Amino acid sequence: MDLGLKGKSALVLAASKGLGKAIATKLSEEGANVMLASRNEENLKSAQAEIKEKTKGYVDYVVCDITNPDSIKEMVEKTAKSFGTIDILVNNAGGPPAGVFDDFDDSAWQKAFELNLLSYVRSIREVLPYMRKQGGGKILNIASSSFKQPIDGLILSNTFRTGVLGLAKSLATELAKDKILINTLGPGRIGTDRLNELDKIEASKKGISIDEVRAAKEQTIPLGRYGLPEEFANIAVFLCSGANTYVTGQAFLVDGGMVRAF
Q1: N or C: which end of the chain has fewer CB atoms below 10 A?
Q2: The model's pTM
């Protein structure tokens, strides 16, 4: 299937590693021009070199603190200047700290809000003029399986990932007239550094090994294993591609069947 991505321009946030990097790599493989964004320039340089070597595509990067509105504005302006426009926005952000309600004060809630919800709002606001001018675009918000079923010990993530879902559902109606499609994608237990960190925290609390934590988690997944970032990226790239012409306002899980809720 031709995904219609050759020559398209994509801005991928939190793209120096993990799910963002996997999505950026797959977009580049399909012929898109890709701008990587992240806070850490060394990680960005490394990711850029790795993706370019693998795909031979046009891959650039921009350092961006997505909790800073000025930094987001500069990121979008650089992307548009480099590529001429922006066809695809992949909103993505690292997860907030693990913990329960009593662990967090107002400052922690505010930081999580700015990282995991307001950053998406701001990025969308900045790319919309380019997408409207060219007559369409694709926006994909990366969230979590917690928008369908809360995850114990991740109250900050549970709260704001669900907010991302509400944002996309609302915008799907507002942006339809502009031919801009927006969807939300939630990873289950995909093998990334973030998941390893959460497994370590759980192992420490329970006094067991990380391998024991992972084995127990895998038993809750019908497919019996953690997913690969590349598997998640395959679904993400389809939703961002020209092959997707009629899916908007929807939320999908890539979780190996783990979440059983309707």
Answers
A1: C
A2: 0.96
